[in-house]
Amino acid sequence: RYSAFALLMLPTRGRNAPLVIVQHGGLGLVEAVAGLRGSTSNYNDVVARLRQRGCAILLPQLPMWRDSAEPRCDQEELEPRLRLLGGSFPALHALTLCRALDAALALPELRTASVGLAGLSYGGCNGIYAAALDPRIGALLTSGFFNDRHAYPLPSAVPPGAARAFLDAELGALVCPRPLWIETADQDEFFLP
Question: CA-CA distance, 67 to 13, in Å (whole number)?
C-alpha cells in the first residue's frame, strides 16, 4: 500500500492564478522547499518568488527522503517491491505527481488554472516524466538533471528497458511543443553537462 501527500499554497487574490508544481530533488522535503524550515538553500526561495507573482504552488512529497522525517521512507526496501510489480521509481513518482495535480485541479479555485512544473535535480527528472505523460502540464523547467543516461544510468531515474525508447532527449521531445526549459551547469557536483 502506498500513500502520498502534498502541500498546496493558494494565493490571496483568488481564482485564475496559475498553478506551479514545485518538485523537490532527492532527499528533499516539501517543508524545506517551501521555506517552512528556514533557509531553502539550493532551492533559491523559488516558492516565495512564485508566490510574490501570485501563483498557486503545489509541492508533492515523493518517497525520496532518508533522514529522520516521518513517516519513515526506505527506498532500498521500496525499490525491489516496485520492480516485482513491473514498476519503477520514475513510474511511481510520475503517478504521484499526476494524482496530486488531479486533487489540486479538483478545487474550485484551480479548476481552470494553467499549470507549470519546476523541478530541481531528481525533481527535474520526475518532472520530465510527468510532463511527457500529462498534457495538463503546460510548461516545464527541469534543472540539474537532464543528461545522457548511458553515462549516468541511475536506477531511481531510469525504468527498466528505457534505453530502447525514452531517455532524457526523447522525453523532452514528448513534452514539446509545450515550453521546455532545460538547465545544466558546469559546476554541478553530480552530473557533467
Answer: 36
Give mean pLDDT in consecutive 10-residue pieces for the chain, a chain of 193 residues: 87 83 86 83 87 95 72 72 82 92 96 95 91 96 87 78 83 95 82 71
